[in-house]
Amino acid sequence: MKILVVDDNPYDRKILRANLEHHNCEVIEAADGQEGLELAQTYKPDVIISDALMPRIDGFQFLRSIKKDESLKKIPFIFYSATYTGQKEIDLAISSGAKAYIIKPMEFKEFWKELNTVINKIADEKTITVSNVEKDEEYLRRYSYIVAAKLEEKIRELEDEIERRKKAEETLREKVKELEDFYNFAVNRELKMKELKEEITNLKTELSEYKKELR
After folding, report:
1. 94 and 63 in contact (C-beta within 8 Å)?
2. Is residue 154 part of a domain?
3. Counting C-beta atoms within 10 Å of the first and last residue's C-beta, which end of the chain has fewer, N or C?
4. CA–CA separation, 164 vs 215, rounded Å?
5. Domain that holds residue 64
6. Has residue 176 been placed in a domain?
7. What is the CATH number of the domain that holds 95?
8. Is residue 161 part of a domain?
9. Residue 104 backbone dihedrals phi, psi, to 5 degrees
10. Tens place of pLDDT per residue across the chain (215 aa)
């Protein structure tokens, strides 16, 4: 079975390739939807497994392009992603023609079992049916909503991270101030001890001279 794996994370592609090749699959790799579309047109894979969040063309746009291409639209498309995992995102993926939405990460055996369940379900169908692709206007409305929601989520995460770093920086400043105060205290104490030792030495000298005078 020839499988096109599309993911912008090279480590995730490597792991997925190892799993699929272990089960005697031929694997083709692409780093984003644009490259995936080009390779799909060239190699006509039996199955496409794609991430959702990718540069240039993301998984949803990639799926949309596949389903609009007469030579590619019958290829089973499966999402395998750790992002866009809400029910609205999954519903959009399925309504756009995806056969399944598998959420990362998943153990090798579990993933292979899930993948086979999807593939066997497709193979059991008397005829391969192509899901009705939503009209452009409806698709764009839902896709825009999902992307906007994800962007807002990322902005909130960034704001939280900035706030966390500010607090960490403030804590670090306080620690530095404590160390400086302690250092200054230690230095002053050392100076005072040195002065005290000098005073004691002077007193001993004076006492010694006084004893000599008494003799």
Report:
1. no
2. no
3. C
4. 76
5. 2-131
6. no
7. 3.40.50.2300
8. no
9. -75, 160
10. 999 999 999 999 999 999 999 999 999 999 999 999 999 999 999 999 999 989 889 999 999 999 999 999 999 999 999 988 888 889 888 988 999 999 998 999 999 999 999 988 877 664 444 445 556 667 667 777 677 666 677 678 778 888 888 888 888 788 878 877 777 777 777 777 777 677 777 666 766 776 666 66
